[in-house]
Amino acid sequence: MVHVEQLPIAVPLSPDIEHRPDRPLPYRARVRWVDPHTRERRSLSESSATLDQAQGWIDTVTAASLRGVDPGASTQPLAQYGDANMKLALRGLEEKTKDPYLAGWRLRVVPSLGHIPALLISNGAVDRSVYGWIADGVGCSSVKNSLAVLVRVMEQAKRDGIITVNPARVNGWQAEYKKAEDELNNPRSLALRDWDALTTLADALVERSYDHYQGWGSVVTFAACTAARIGEVSGVRVRDIDQVNWIWTVRRQTTPAPGGLIDKGTKGKMARRIPLIEEVRPLVAQRILAVGRNPDARLFTGPRGGRITTAVLRDATHWDEVVAALGYEHLRRHGLRHTGLTWMADAGVPLHVLRVIAGHGSLLTTQRYLHPDLQALVAAGRSLSAHLSGAPTPSRPLATSLQAL
After folding, report:
1. If you average pLDDT over residues 211-225, what whole number do you get?
2. Please, which pLDDT band fits residue 125 given cuts at 50, 70 and 90?
């Protein structure tokens, strides 16, 4: 059957904004129109935190409509648009090139950006996604392929009139990759300095959040004290906590996927155990009490009971603004994990135990958290001398107890 292309037709939209003060996102923007081909009445809506954001969404959809873009297509999620137009986006490429491009699309682009309409993807969203891939240890060639397929899909969206500028054309990401490598080689530089700094951060994030939700402070404190990823904190269930020995068995993490958030196994594909220090036990006990000891209940959720991701935490607490105001511009959500591992290393936790807690596949990764300062080097020399002379060495109760893990 011969394909017959329909010319785009600009349709007038009827916009309105409804204020619902009892909602976390209180401004609902809506546009209505009549489909010029079917004559059916259609509508789209989007909830926003502020009136300006709601109006901005209406302006964006209206501008696309004036260019002849169907409002429904303009708000189509990137994953859906890309899957429908991938053949066009990859035309001209050799088959051997398409395979790594499609892998990058499936494994990185869709989980990071697939839920966002192509029309609303910004340079900043692409920047954060690329940095996220780098921080997760994705290889340079895989980042390159993932970004390349995103560029091609967004270029097709530009040809279709959905967007006017391709936001995926990121310049200088290789320098960002090198910077991230340098940071990951020295993760101690990304850690908070002490307990007071952590509690100050947690309180400030709660203060900036909608309705001052205390749960955000609990998430941040728990993540730092356990050196866990935010997705792993989201995955904690009551039955994962041993309240006798105060051990958390990490079994799952929450992660973005096509269609929404899902729970899956840990990054290392293996369960691991983490000690819960005294400072965090009251917080954990309160959360268990709050959910009624249901063994399958989540310990940490958003204010409406939803699953947490690093992006949810960032947006709900205005993370970037808060850390900048506190002088922690270097701190990202993943920095809470660096904080916990740095503190444990400085407390004298043995390297092989620290590796188990972190879930690192390589001992070299764990070694980056050690701080071989002058005092530690002198102590190491004394320990060797004591060993050679047969003298007893001081006991380390904390280290001994952790070795049992």
Report:
1. 95
2. confident
pLDDT band at 33 (very low <50, low <70, confident <90, very high): confident
pLDDT, position 2: 46
Q: Which residues of 270-290 are buried (b: 16+ CB within 10 A; e: fewer)?
A: eebebbbeeebeebbeebbee
Strands 272-275 and 247-250: antiparallel
**Token pair recorded at residue 193:** 């300095």
* Measured distance CA(291)–CA(300) in Å, rounded: 10
pLDDT 10s digits, 138-194: 777 888 899 899 999 999 888 887 788 898 887 766 666 666 565 566 788 888 999
Q: What are phi and psi of 307, to 5 degrees?
A: -75, 155
Cα→Cα distances 165→71, 114, 149, 229, 343, Å = 18, 18, 16, 35, 45
Strand partners, 298: 237
Residue 334 has pLDDT above 90, yes or no: no
- Tracing tokens 């006798």 back to the chain, one arrives at 244
Task: Of 97, 73, 193, 184, give the one whose Cα is nearest residue 138.
Answer: 184
Sign of the torsion formed by the C-alpha atoms of 236, 242, 247 and 252: negative
Cα 276 from Cα 138, distance rounded (Å)? 30
SS3 string of the chain? CCCCCCCCCCCCCEEEEEECCCCCCCEEEEEEEECCCCCCEEEEEEEECCHHHHHHHHHHHHHHHHCCCCHHHHCCEHHHHHHHHHHHHCCCCCHHHHHHHHHHHHHHHHHHHCCCEHHHCCHHHHHHHHHHHHHCCCCHHHHHHHHHHHHHHHHHHHHCCCCCCCCCCCCCHHHHHHHHHHHHHCHHHHCCCCHHHHHHHHHHHHHHCHHHCCHHHHHHHHHHHHCCCHHHHHCCEHHHEECCCCEEEECCEEEEECCEEEEECCCCCCCEEEECCHHHHHHHHHHHHHCCCCCCCECCCCCCCCCCCHHHHHHHHCHHHHHHHCCCCCCCCCHHHHHHHHHHHHCCCCHHHHHHHHCCCCHHHHHCCCCCCHHHHHHHHHHHHHHHHCCCCCCCHHHHHHHCC
The residue ranking higher by pLDDT, 86 or 293, is 86
Cα–Cα distance measured from residue 368 to residue 362, given in angstroms and rounded to the nearest whole number: 11
